[in-house]
Write a structure and sequence with these properties.
9-stranded mixed sheet, Structural Genomics Hypothetical 15.5 Kd Protein In mrcA-pckA Intergenic Region, Chain A, Alpha-Beta Plaits, 234 residues, elongated, single chain
Length: 234
């Protein structure tokens, strides 16, 4: 088995993040640091370590759906000491988030120890729809909504087409629903900023057909078997 697939299967992180750990020289096989992503190992005989800690295959996969509150980062740890969403899950399993929501964004995020599923869902070829609701300072004109639908340029690259609809406008705040299938860093906020709009509140309410539902902030639940199967078949 390739070393990157082995580490992802062990629940260390997604395949992409695992590959960076290997390149950075954090992984050893039988006491020897390896940086070649094509390294093959015998998972029954070889001893693999990450930062000098032995890594073993995960026997049971777990999948959590969390309603992330603002003020937490979507990571396993943070060198700056900020709170992480992993701290909100009461489990002994080594879990990590699939994708991310930025520090000030709330809503649905999935955590798991299934590195292969994480790799699949985060790969650009899998256009998984993500639904957000946002509170925007001031009203939104139909012409502005149309610009978002057709795509805007952020970080030098145009976004894919989005589905956008105005939900309501009251007391100087416009509530908007937006559906995208890309996952660039702070993409939704940057899309609104590109047309001169300030985001006051942002929450992801769905990933595909998975919805955050009635979970309160910081609450989580295990995914049901049919939900896990749904994600694997996306």
């Amino acid at each position: 088995m390739r070393i990157n697939k082995y580490l992802a299967t062990c629940g260390i992180a997604s395949r992409r993040k695992v590959e960076q750990l290997i390149v950075d020289g954090k992984v050893s096989v039988n006491g020897k640091v390896i940086t070649n992503l094509a390294t093959d190992i015998d998972e029954k005989k070889d001893v693999v370590t990450l930062n000098n800690e032995t890594v073993k295959l995960v026997e049971e996969k777990v999948y959590y759906l969390l309603n992330k509150p603002k003020g937490y980062i979507s990571a396993v740890s943070d060198k700056n000491g900020r709170k992480t969403i992993v701290e909100l899950i009461d489990t002994t399993e080594r879990i990590f988030p699939i994708g991310r929501l930025d520090y000030d964004t709330e809503g649905l995020i999935i955590l798991t120890n299934d590195g292969e599923l994480a790799h699949k869902l985060m790969h650009p070829s899998h256009e998984v729809e993500k639904t957000y609701v946002a509170n925007i300072q001031g009203d939104m004109l139909e012409s502005e909504l149309a610009v978002l639908r057709s795509g805007v340029v952020i970080d030098g690259e145009r976004t894919a087409k989005a589905r956008v609809k105005k939900l309501k406008f009251e007391e100087g705040v416009c509530r908007v629903e937006l559906v995208i299938h890309e996952g660039r860093n702070r993409q939704v906020r940057k899309m609104f900023e590109a047309i001169g709009k300030e985001v006051l509140f942002l929450k992801r309410i769905a990933i595909g057909d998975l919805k955050v539902g009635g979970l309160n902030r910081k609450e989580y639940r295990l995914l049901k078997p049919f939900e896990i199967e749904y994600l694997k078949n996306l």
